[in-house]
Design brief:
This protein is mainly alpha-helical. 73% of the residues lie in helices and 3% in strands.
Length: 229
């Protein structure tokens, strides 16, 4: 009886550990915790997450399949390097998918409470950038701001595509935020214009605002790429 009970519970525990490791690594990549080109070693990750290497290997395989990581011969993985070609591909894909999702969300509409929450997030994002070590906070708040809008589109398929694109963009967005500070270009995220358009129910203006928001970091990063000789 005890043995039967244990055997039915064991796969659930194992699955939850594998999923937990994947979710942690996924969120770290999406929030820019790792840099483009950074190598993720299996044993080092296992030690950091206080787990065995098996769930780490499985999580890395899944992230490689989602194009968030590239396999290495040593069985480790690395974040893809920044190249103009990859930047351009991610840029145009995000413009199409996120622009459409924003239009759908605007057509469905937002409550007064939802709009107020978006306004507060826009304010908090700006405030976090003025704080010491506020980079991680601003990236997390920025993701929350965007995904509140995308979830309102009520399309699980579209949301899955957006999550995949953000997973691939995380290291790049961190790079932009670090390079474009007060001594360079002021970060322009168009959040206030976007909230205004959503409040007015103007789907076209909302799409334009979200596309301008998406384009700005990609354009900045492309401008900082060394010119080929």
């Amino acid at each position: 009886m005890d043995k039967a009970t244990f055997s039915t519970k064991e796969p659930i525990v194992r699955t939850s550990v594998h999923d937990a490791v994947y979710q942690v690594l996924r969120n770290r990549i999406m929030h820019g915790a790792y840099r483009a080109g950074q190598v993720l070693a299996i044993q080092e990750l296992a030690d950091n997450l206080d787990t065995s290497t098996m769930p780490v290997r499985e999580a890395l395989r899944k992230l490689i399949a989602q194009q968030a990581l590239e396999p290495m011969r040593s069985r480790s993985a690395r974040l893809p390097l920044i190249t103009p070609q990859r930047l351009a591909d991610l840029h145009r894909s995000r413009l199409l998918v996120e622009g459409t999702a924003t239009q759908w969300a605007c057509q469905i509409g937002f409550s007064a409470d939802e709009l107020q929450a978006l306004k507060q997030l826009a304010h908090d994002i700006h405030q976090s950038r003025t704080q010491p070590n506020g980079l991680s906070t601003s990236l997390e708040l920025n993701r929350e701001f965007h995904f509140r809008i995308y979830k309102t589109a009520r399309s699980p398929v579209m949301l899955g595509l957006i999550e995949s694109l953000w997973l691939q963009s995380g290291p790049y967005l961190r790079e932009v935020q670090e390079l474009c500070g007060p001594e360079r270009a002021t970060i322009d995220d168009h959040h206030e214009k976007l909230v205004d358009a959503l409040q007015a129910g103007d789907a076209h203006a909302a799409q334009q605002a979200i596309q301008a928001d998406i384009s700005w970091p990609f354009e900045q990063l492309l401008s900082l790429q060394p010119s080929s000789t």
